[in-house]
């Protein structure tokens, strides 16, 4: 792959790395405490399996992206990297989607199930979750562009 085709891919991977690392760190630092009726409770990311999944997938995406930034571009593993990029994009999409569902539940509650919203009591926690979700969504979008660029390069090399 020529230098003119490697630079955009490097920049896209660098942006994806920044977004996924940011999402991981913001989610890891999300915690807040509240006191309701003299009962103190703590909201943190580790209380929800969905948020743990989000952190795990973003950490894996960060490591994968970091490794690929130093991977030789003239390798014969282009098809494998394309498939792994697709899988990473799908995993990022699934983790963001799951967290948006739980975040919506935390923000609005569910009257039918009797679940009350918690963001009024722990706004700092909800703000961190929102920031992590935005960063994770940006990482997923960048991975979409990585996929498009990789597919474009694959077809232009064969033509």
Automatic annotation (TrEMBL):
Name of the protein in its database record: CASP-like protein
Summary of subunit composition and partner proteins: Homodimer and heterodimers.
Pfam families recorded: CASP_dom
Keywords: Cell membrane, Membrane, Transmembrane, Transmembrane helix
Organism field: Castilleja foliolosa
A GO CC term assigned to this protein in UniProt: plasma membrane
UniProt keyword Membrane present: yes
Subcellular location: Cell membrane
Coiled-coil regions listed in the entry: none
Family: Belongs to the Casparian strip membrane proteins (CASP) family.
PANTHER family, A to Z: CASP-LIKE PROTEIN 1U1
InterPro entries with a match to the protein in the record: CASP/CASPL, CASP_dom, CASPL
Domain Casparian strip membrane protein residues, every copy: 6-141
Record-annotated membrane-spanning stretches: 12-31, 51-71, 83-106, 132-155
Topology of this chain in the membrane: Multi-pass membrane protein
């Amino acid at each position: 792959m020529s230098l003119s085709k490697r630079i955009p891919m490097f920049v896209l991977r660098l942006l994806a790395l920044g977004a996924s690392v940011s999402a991981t760190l913001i989610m890891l630092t999300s915690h807040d405490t509240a006191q309701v009726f003299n009962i103190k409770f703590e909201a943190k990311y580790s209380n929800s399996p969905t948020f743990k999944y989000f952190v795990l997938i973003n950490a894996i995406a960060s490591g994968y992206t970091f490794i690929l930034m130093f991977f030789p571009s003239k390798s014969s593993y282009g098809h494998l990297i394309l498939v792994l990029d697709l899988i990473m994009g799908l995993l990022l999409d699934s983790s963001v989607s799951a967290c948006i569902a739980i975040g919506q539940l935390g923000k609005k509650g569910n009257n039918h199930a009797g679940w009350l919203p918690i963001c009024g009591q722990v706004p700092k926690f909800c703000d961190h979750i929102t920031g992590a979700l935005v960063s994770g969504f940006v990482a997923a979008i960048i991975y979409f562009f990585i996929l498009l660029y990789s597919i474009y390069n694959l077809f232009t090399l064969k033509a």
